[in-house]
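Bench log, entry 3. Co-assembly request; chain sequences pasted below exactly as received.
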Amino acid sequence: MTTQVPTEYGTVAIGLHWLAAAAIIGNLALGLYMVDLSLSPTKLKLYSWHKWAGVTIFLLSAARLLWRLAHPAPALPDAMPAWQRRAANASHRVLYLLFFLAPLSGWLFSSAAGFQTVYFGVLPLPDLLAKNTEVADVLKLVHRTANYGLAALVVLHVAAALKHHVVDGDGVLARMIPFLKPRT
Amino acid sequence: MKTPFLALAIAATLVIAPPAYSQATQKVVAEKSHIRFAFKQMNVPVEGRFRKFDATVSFDPKKPEATRAEFEVDLGSIDLGNAEGETEARRKPWLHVEAFPKAKFTASAVKATGPGRYEASGPLTIKGATLNITAPFSLVDAGGMRTVEGQFPLRRLQFKIGDGPWADTETVADEVTVRFRFVIPSTK
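Structure output for the full assembly:
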């Protein structure tokens, strides 16, 4: 581990970031779509896929967190005001918290609702909670709130990245999208 | 055409007063008995039960072949622990409870298969379809109560349970395991 702060993200960090971004945005959209469907075989399939994607996002987030702890993020631009630095750090912390809270609350909600999660239809995850309608209702609310929060933070994250690129022109977005870097 | 009166009279007598058996006919103790079922949905085990059923049993362990037992299950009393699933299960593609409110099973043959072990077979009628099934069960007498416990598999599609798009067995498996427990006051 180096104490020196790097100037850019490595390939692994960039790859994991975009993989997670695609999975999280896709699963948020799937979750929003599937809840309003009337009961059908399609609905049951989508619910299972949503749970499998959620478990995958949890694992991916754990991998990203470990990677990030071992490979610090590049420093923020010197010109950034202190409040923006604080906001950027805080929003990244809450994002990571929700990367775990969203799938965990979904898994527990599923258990309380009486449906075990069987990853890819092969690996049964343990049910930490017994079936209980009242507990399920609370966890449903937690899962929904965590995911609306996550969706809002994703929007904020994208907006801030675009602001850095378009308004500040400081290369923050280019750290995650290397081809945006001006050729030197 | 004239109906043979005597034949009708005999039939009526048989229905009203079945022949006497060595065992008195018993009703099951509902709160100690259950009918549960288990199946797989997207490979996830799911369980349910029927809250209301009725059984009339006349059974002598020494003469199992003389058994008379009839079971009726109120299909509308399905409990999946999930209101959306229960509403769906009562609808036409599944149990069509409005047209077929009850499932019936008559144990027309019972034989001993080992100590305390028996096997009942007979016609099972669900949703207008009748198929013969065989259900192994155990029997324990304790504290003035006789407990009969067993299970049997059934294929839901043979009874058109989950018809149309629901016939896709990759979503909801065809095989359903029915587990039963009946507690009956034992008679000396």
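The two ends of chain A are 29 Å apart (CA to CA). Chain A touches chain B at residues 39-41, 44-45, 47-48, 113-118, 121-122, 131, 133 (CB under 8 Å).
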